[in-house]
């Protein structure tokens, strides 16, 4: 009897460990309204969550407001919590979401600063990659330096785009 109990307990531990290693599929709140067209959004919608159905994929997003060029912008909520990647992986991560998804520029991330202290799941923990080149006058390879922006403090960091530098990643979507 003790042997069976021990084997059962070990089996449960192994199963729970295997489940912990398997990434969970993103959970979407199906009760959220669909993302409206840019012309139907206003400042009163800033911070609201929507579902974006883009081809075969569905993404939960929040409307962040208007970018520096006046474009209505949404950001993925599945990225917010803890995705820290190299620059190349961050660009690929956003592109893999499908048409219209991209890594934002530094001025686009500044739109998020007023929302940085939002409660979970929208809490923004730190510095995020941008596509903005970092000023690097003496660099032999200036295209290897990008800026990272800390949405909580407003600090700008220069990030070397080699595999050992990782920052958080959040993907932007221009709302048509």
> How is the main sheet built?
5 strands, antiparallel
What best-fitting shape do the alpha-carbon axes yield?
A: globular
Number of helices: 3
What would you say the CATH architecture is?
A: Roll
- Output the structural class: alpha+beta
Which range does the strand content fall in? 25-35%
Uncertain spans? 1-25
Give the count of structural domains: 1
CATH topology: Mannose-Binding Protein A, Chain A
Rg computed from alpha carbons, rounded to a whole number of angstroms: 20 Å
Helix/strand order: HEEEEHEHEEEEE
Compose a concise summary of this entry.
This protein is of the alpha+beta class and 176 residues long. The protein has a single domain (34-174), classed as Mannose-Binding Protein A, Chain A.
Q: What attributes characterize this protein structure?
A:
27% strand; alpha+beta; 5-stranded antiparallel sheet; single chain; globular; 10 strands; 3 helices
